[in-house]
Amino acid sequence: MMTALPTLAVKNGRKPAGTPGHGRLAAAYLAPGMLGFLVFIVLPLVASLVISLFDWPLFGAPEFVGLDNYARMLTGDPVFWTVLGNTLFFAVSYTVLNLVLALAVSTWLHHLGSWGPFFRVLFFIPVVTPMVANALVWRLMLTDDGVVNSFLANFGIDGPSWLSDSQLAMGSLIAMSVWQGIGYNIIVLGAGLNGISPNLLEAARIDGAGAWQRFFRVVLPMLSPSLFFCTVMTIIGSFKVFTQPYLLTLGGPGESTNTIVLYLYRNGFSFDKLGYASALAWALFVIVMLITALQFSQQKRLVNYDN
Amino acid sequence: MTTETLAKPATDKPTTHRRHSPGMRKKKHPGHYISRAGAILVGLVFFFPFLWMLATSLKPTSEIFSTGASFLASRVEWSNYVTAWTAIPFGRVIINSFLVAIAGAALTTVVSLLSAYAFARMQFKHRDKLFLVFLGTLVLPQEVLVIPLYIMMNKLELVNSPTALIVPFAFGAFGAFLIRQFLLSLPEEFEEAARIDGAGSIRILWSVILPLVRAHLQWWQSSASSTTGAASSGR
C-alpha cells in the first residue's frame, strides 16, 4: 500500500501532471470524516430545507404546505422584519466595535513588551469561560440597583435601566458581546502583528514615515489577511447571536433585542413550529452565505497576500 | 535587526527601542509608564465581571441585589458552594462536561487528522472541489442544522444522552482545515524519511505528523472543548 505513495507527489497541494492518484487509500482516510460530514452536516442541511416546506409540529404528523412558511415570513409576519433589523444592527455594530477595539488593543499589547502575553491571556479569558456564566454575571451587574448603577450613583449620576430600556438594551447586549468575543480577534491579530517583519517598518522609518503612516501604510496592509479572516468569522458569528439576548433580555423589552436565532429557537422549541423555524434558519443561511460571498469577491481588492 | 543596527548611529541600543518611534531615545520614556498604568486599569475593568462573579458567590441570596457596589455583604456566605455542590448532582455534571469535552476533542482530532492528511498529501479525483465544499460548511450556522439533528436524535432515541452532544459536532471542517494548512507548510521530507525507513502510512501519521501538529492541536482543542462545554450547557 505504502509504495503507492509517490515521493514528492503533492508539494504544497499542487498536483504534478501524470502522477497516479491514490484513490483507495485516500478513500480510507477520508471515510470517517466524510461519512460524519454527510450524516451530520449535509443530511441535516437538506432535511431542514425539506422541513421548511412543512407545517411540522414537535410531536404529531407533519403536513406539506409548500412555500407557505416562506410567504408568511416575508409578508405575513412583521416580527420577522423587526428581528432581521435587530440582527443586522447587532451584526454591524458588534463587528465594527470588535474589530476596531481588537486592532487597537492588539497593537497596544504588541508594544507592551514583556507584559503583552499576560494581557493577551487576560483578554482571552471571557472567550473560554462559559457564555452562560458570562451573560448571567452581566445581567447581575446591569440590573437597576446593580453594581454599575451603584458606582454611577457615587458620582451623582442616576443610572438608566440598562436591560429594560428599549433604547439601551441592544447597546448593553453589544457591550457584553464585545467583552465576550474580543479576545479571539486580539489573539489572531496579535499573531498577525508578530508575523510582520521589523525590517519593513525599519525601512519605512528610514524613508521618513511617521508612526501613523507606518501603521496605515505598512502594518495595516500587512495585517490584511488576518483582518480579513477576523472580519469574516466575526460577521458570521454575529449573525448567530443567541445566548446573550436569551439570557440578558429574553428578546425584550418588546421585540427590541430579539434576534433571528432567538426567534428561530422560540418558534421551534416553544411555539412548536419546526417548519417555520427551519424557514427562518434558511433565511439566516442565505443571508450569511451572501455576505460571506460578497466579502470573498472583494478579497482580491482589499487583502494583500504578497509578502 | 541587522538593518536597524546599520541604520542607526551607535549611540543607542537598538534592541530596547525597536518598536518605538525614533523620538524616544531615553531608556524609559514616560509613555512607557503611562502605557503600563493604562494596561493595569483596562485589565482590571476587563476582569471586573469575574471578580464580581466571585464576590457574588459569597453573598447571601437575600443581599445579592441590595449590596450595591460593595464587594462584601453582611457576612461571607461560604455555604453557597456547599449548596451548589449538593443542590444539583454537581460532581456528575462536571464529569459529564469532562466526558463530552474529552470524547469530543478526541473524536474530532482523529477524524480531522485523517481527513487533513488525505487532503494535504494524497491525490484523488475532485480533491480540491471536495475540500472547497467541505470548507464552505464553515459558514453554515449550526442553528440551521439543529432542528433536523434534534429530530434525528429523537428518532434514534439519543436525546438526553452524551452521544447526542459528542458525535454530531465532531465532523466540522475547522479542525481538518487547520491541520491541512499546517501540513502544507511542513516539508514532506520528514514523511519520506520515515517511509524509506519502512513506516506505513498510519505509522507516519502517528509517529511523525502527530508530534509535529501537537502544538497546533492543543490550541484548537482547548478552544474546541470549551465551546463544547458551552454548547452542551446552552442547549
Automatic annotation (TrEMBL), chain A:
It is found in: Cell membrane. It holds the Pfam family BPD_transp_1. Residues 84-295 form the ABC transmembrane type-1 domain. It comes from the Bacteria. The chain crosses the membrane at residues 34-59, 79-109, 121-141, 168-194, 215-239, 274-294. GO terms for cellular component: plasma membrane. Keywords: Cell membrane, Membrane, Transmembrane, Transmembrane helix, Transport. GO terms for biological process: transmembrane transport. It is a multi-pass membrane protein. SUPFAM superfamilies: MetI-like. Belongs to the binding-protein-dependent transport system permease family. This is ABC transporter permease.
